[in-house]
Amino acid sequence: MKYVSEFRDPVLARNLARQIAAEADPARQYAFMEFCGGHTHAIFRYGVHDLMPKNLRFVHGPGCPVCVLPVRRLDDAIEVAEKHGAILCAYGDMMRVPGTGRRSLLSARAAGADIRMVYSPLDALALARENPQAQVVFLGIGFETTAPATAMAILQAQAEGLANFSVLCNHVLTPPAIRHVLEAPGIDPEQAVRLDGFLGPSHVSTVIGAHAYAPLVARYGKPVVIAGFEPLDVMQAVLMLIRQVNDGRAQVENQYTRVVTDTGNQKAQGVMAQVFTLRPAFEWRGLGSVPDSAFAIAPEYAAFDAEQRFPISDKASRETKSCECPAILRGVKEPKDCKLFGRACTPETPMGACMVSSEGACAAWYTYRRAEAMGTPAPALEPAQ
Amino acid sequence: MCLAIPARITALHDGAMATVNAGGVTRDVSVALLEAVAVGDYVLLHVGYALHLISEEEARETLRMMAQTGLLQDELAEMAGTSGGQGA
Ligand code: SF4
Q1: Is residue A316 exposed (0-12), middle (13-18) or buried (19+ Cβ within 10 Å)?
Q2: What ipTM goes with this model?
Q3: Which InterPro entries match (chain A) (predicted)?
Q4: Residue pairs spanning A and B at CB distance below 8 A
Q5: Which pTM value belongs to this model?
Q6: Fewer Cβ in 10 A, N or C end of chain A?
Q7: CATH tag, A1-369
């Protein structure tokens, strides 16, 4: 069992692996989607997939913020910086994502646009204070983990009267994305990925709370187990999913009770409800148009909405040709199915968003299972035990 | 960016701001989204906002795991590398 010696409690890891093997019904196939890219990373890093029985597989979900942002929205951000002369502030993960014609924020910056990498919207607010003559635009991306921070920054800008601050809002929501994966609209049922349950995200769930998944579970009859980030958490959650499937149950269960509560952070939910409104639909890379799945800035805060402030042009945005990122985000393909993987596309020269972020499936495969994905067997990293 | 970092509150300031230490990096963050916090508390930090109180043990284990996976280094570099950070 590779890497097991690095687990917090190797004995517990072996026991859990044994328990999973004993309870997994050999007559069934189990497919569990880990929604969150952080889980993908942990599963790969610790070789959790190698500790699972043959009839159990993990399907990578769309929970990687830069991966799901469609190329058009990135092109818009570049336009705001280049054509409208704004200081554009973006998270580090965004900087190398290729847009149309493989132009990224980094290459736009090299060509003279004023693009800054920030850790927090607080940094963008500070830039707006320091540069009162300039327009400062924060590129808001991410799920319910980053959306409250964006909402708070807008409230802060309003309180301070920072008229030169605005947000290009691309925040997306987890439960509608899970719903979309399950409904797979427009996808031939033969081609749709068959799933038996979900590992619920750790940190998103600290904000929205375990109860947020209850309507989904009731409607679609697939279990959700919220799991912590530790590999032991993931294994424990897998065991809980197996038990639900075997018993014919579908419930929201919370493995990560150390941190996640039923109701989540209500202050954070409150500021999101105050500052944002639901877009009727939003385009996701891979998933296409997903109803009620993203935030726009509410009309009361339109003064801070970059989409209102700048005339953003219509443009023909295009993904890199042959990049399989969209199909990978739906769970129907794997990075090894992409002919650019590890050849034209590497973390140093990413052709698609899934290779850029450490939360992306291509980056995880590249880091941990490159040889296997490229068709040569992986060298043993630690003697089998 | 999507992952939270555990941090310890080392000082509280006006305007619901606080100084925290995360894996050796010191930074000012907002605690406006928490009900009540005190110096010495451990929090989960999302892009400059504390969103959850956690136990010291949980903070330690999460930091250890993030360090092992290489995720911690990325997050800390971003935290330290921009205007609000003060480096390790
Ligand atoms: S390997 Fe690169 S080009 Fe291929 S799907 Fe992944 S990100 Fe896209």
Answers
A1: exposed
A2: 0.89
A3: Hyd_form_HypD, HypD_1, HypD_2_sf
A4: 131
A5: 0.92
A6: C
A7: 3.40.50.11740
